[in-house]
Design a protein that fits this description.
Elements (H helix, E strand, L loop, with lengths): L3 H17 L17 H7 L5 H7 L2 E13 L3 E8 L2 E8 H4 L1 H7 L7 E10 L5 E12 L15 H6 L1 H7 L1 H23 L3 E2 L5 E2 L11 E4 L4 E5 L4 H9 L4 E9 L11 E10 L3 H20 L3 E4 L2 E4 L6 E3 H9 L9 H11 L12 H13 L7 E7 L15 E9 L2 E8 L4 H16 L10 H7 L6 E7 H9 L19
C-alpha cells in the first residue's frame, strides 16, 4: 500500500500531465457563467421523470468537487459535490471528443471541475447531467478520506475539520444548524426590540463571571490587559447609558479546564433588559430556546442520548437547596458555614465531591450541585434561589437576604443559561466585590476583582434590570444531539500534537 509521500508524488505527476499534455490550467481564475448550483438543479427537477426532462429540454451548467468517479472505458459517471449537495455527471468520449475525454481521464477524486449539458434520468432513475462541455477548476494534491470508511479518527476530525465537513454529513449538518440557530436567536431578540451591540474583548480589568482570565499586554500603552471572561459589566454600562434592551453574541475566553462542555474559547449570548427582573428573563430564555428549536428543526422536541426532550415553555422552577436536599440529604439552608458543611458532605458521602478541595462554603455548594444534581436535570428546568455567596452580581431576595434572585437553566444534564435580577445598589455591589477580594486573598483564583470604574458607573444609577447569559455552543449541543462541545465548534481548541 502506497504511503503518503508516494500518493502525493503520484497526484502531482498526474497534475503535471494534465497541464503539459492537455494544456489545462490547474488553478484558473474564472468559472464559466451562468452557473447553476447543484442543490438548485436537484430540487428544481426532483419530481421530473425522463420524459418531462426531455420535453423541457432541461439543461444545467454546474461545478463542484469530484467526490467519486466510476469509469467504463469510453464513458464515466462522476459524482460532483458542492455546498452539501451532490449531482451525477455522465461523461462520454463520443459526446466530448477524444482530446477532451483524454484530459478528463487525468481528473481525480478531490479535483474541482465544471460541466454543462442536458438533464436526463439514468436507467436507475438518477438525475444526471449529460456533459457536452467539461473543464477543470482546481487541483487537489491530497486525496480525500477513503469513502467507505469515512473520517472516523476523532483527533483528525477536530484538527482537520475541513475533511470532516467534506465526508461526514452529520458534521456539516451540525455546522449548518448552529449557524441557523445563531441567526434565529438574533431574529427573536430583534423582534422583541433588543439592540445588538459590541463590547471590548481586551479589557483593563476582567469581570462578570467566576473564572481565571487570559493575560496579555499592549505594547504601545505598556498596559496589562485581559481577554474578557464575560460581557456583563460593559453591557450594564449601556443600560446605565439609556440603551434599555441590549444583547451581544460573541467570544469569551476563560483559562480553565477542557471537558465535553468546556472550552477555553467559547461563544456566549448575553441579554440585558431595563425595567425587568429574573422572572422576565425566565420567560425570555424559554421562548428563545423553543423559538430557535422551531426555526432550526421545525419543532420543540429534540433527541438526546436516545431520549426525547420537549423544549416547549413553560419550564418548571425548582429551588437549588431543595434539589440538593432531594439528591444528597444535605441541607445548605441549615448548614451555612464551611467546616460544618464539609462534615455534612462527608457524612452524606456525596459521590465525586472532595470537601477539602473547596476553599469556601460557596465553592463547596457549587461542587455538590455540579456533581450530584446537575447531571440528573435532563428535561428543561429553571433552578432558582441561589445563595448570595455564589452570586456577587445578583440582587438579593427582599424576603430572604441570604439568597439572590438568580436562576440557571438546565437541559440535557448541563447548564445552558444563567440569569439575575441585576444588582443595581452600588454600596451592596461594593460590599460583594470586597467579599470576592477577600476570597481571592484566601486562595480563590477565580474570585471577582473590585471594579472601581463599574462602581462609578453604577453610582450614576441603573434601573431595575434583568440579565441573562446563554452558552451558544451548549444550546447547539442540545439542538443537534451532539455529545461534546467540540462537535459543534468548527475549530475547537486542542492539545498540541506533541503533548
Amino acid at each position: 500500500m502506497a504511503n503518503e509521500a508516494e500518493i502525493l508524488a503520484a497526484r502531482r505527476k498526474r497534475a503535471e500531465r494534465l497541464r503539459d499534455e492537455a494544456g489545462a490550467e490547474l488553478f484558473p481564475a474564472r468559472v464559466p457563467r451562468p452557473l447553476d448550483s447543484l442543490r438548485e438543479v436537484s430540487e428544481r427537477w426532483a419530481e421530473s421523470d425522463a420524459e418531462a426532462l426531455e420535453e423541457a429540454r432541461a439543461e444545467a451548467r454546474v461545478a463542484g468537487r469530484i467526490a467519486a468517479v466510476r469509469s467504463f472505458g469510453k464513458a464515466a459517471f462522476v459524482t460532483l459535490q458542492a455546498d452539501g449537495a451532490r449531482l451525477q455527471v455522465w461523461v462520454k468520449r463520443d459526446r466530448l471528443g477524444s482530446e477532451v475525454y483524454r484530459a478528463f481521464r487525468l481528473y481525480e477524486a478531490g479535483d474541482f471541475i465544471w460541466a454543462r449539458g442536458g438533464l436526463l434520468r439514468t436507467r436507475s432513475g438518477e438525475l444526471t447531467v449529460e456533459a457536452e462541455e467539461i473543464g477543470f477548476l482546481a487541483k487537489s494534491y491530497r486525496p480525500l478520506p477513503e469513502k467507505f470508511h469515512g473520517l472516523v479518527d476523532v483527533e483528525t476530525r477536530y484538527r482537520q475539520r475541513y475533511l470532516d465537513l467534506l465526508v461526514n454529513p452529520e458534521a456539516r449538518d451540525w455546522a449548518v444548524k448552529r449557524s441557523r440557530m445563531v441567526s434565529a436567536l438574533r431574529a427573536l431578540l430583534d423582534e422583541r426590540g433588543f439592540l445588538e451591540v459590541e463590547t471590548p474583548v481586551l479589557q483593563p480589568l476582567y469581570g462578570g463571571a467566576h473564572a481565571t482570565p487570559f493575560v496579555t499586554r499592549h505594547k504601545t500603552y505598556d498596559q496589562q490587559l485581559y481577554l474578557r471572561i464575560s460581557f456583563e459589566l460593559y453591557l450594564k454600562r449601556l443600560i446605565i447609558g439609556g440603551l434599555d434592551r441590549v444583547y451581544e453574541i460573541g467570544r469569551d475566553f476563560r483559562n480553565e479546564g477542557v471537558s465535553r462542555k468546556h472550552n477555553p474559547e467559547f461563544s456566549m449570548l448575553e441579554v440585558y433588559q431595563a425595567y425587568a427582573d429574573y422572572t422576565d428573563m425566565m420567560e425570555l430564555t424559554e421562548n428563545l430556546v423553543a423559538g430557535a428549536a422551531e426555526r432550526v428543526g421545525g419543532g420543540t422536541r429534540v433527541e438526546r442520548d436516545g431520549r426525547g426532550i420537549d423544549l416547549a415553555p413553560p419550564w418548571p422552577r425548582r429551588p437549588m437547596a431543595e434539589l440538593i436536599r432531594e439528591r444528597t440529604g444535605v441541607d445548605i439552608e441549615q448548614v451555612t458555614e464551611l467546616e460544618p458543611l464539609r462534615d455534612e458532605v462527608r457524612r452524606a458521602g456525596v459521590a465525586g465531591v472532595d470537601p477539602a478541595a473547596s476553599p469556601t462554603w460557596a465553592a463547596l455548594v457549587d461542587a455538590i450541585f455540579s456533581q450530584a444534581v446537575e447531571p440528573e436535570l435532563i428535561d428543561p428546568v429553571f433552578v432558582l434561589d441561589y445563595p448570595a455567596a455564589l452570586s456577587p452580581l445578583a440582587k438579593r431576595d427582599e424576603s430572604r437576604p441570604h439568597l439572590v434572585e438568580r436562576f440557571e437553566a438546565f437541559i440535557g444534564g448541563m447548564e445552558i443559561a444563567n440569569a439575575f435580577s441585576e444588582l443595581n445598589d452600588p454600596d451592596d455591589q461594593r460590599a460583594r466585590f470586597e467579599e470576592q477580594a477577600a476570597a481571592a486573598r484566601s486562595g480563590d483564583a477565580e474570585a471577582h476583582p473590585v471594579d472601581e470604574d463599574f462602581l462609578r458607573a453604577l453610582e450614576h444609577g441603573m434601573p431595575p434590570t434583568g440579565g441573562m447569559g446563554m452558552g451558544v455552543g451548549r444550546l447547539a449541543m442540545i439542538l443537534t444531539g451532539a455529545a461534546h462541545l467540540r462537535e459543534v465548534k468548527l475549530f475547537p481548541h486542542l492539545r498540541p500534537r506533541d503533548a
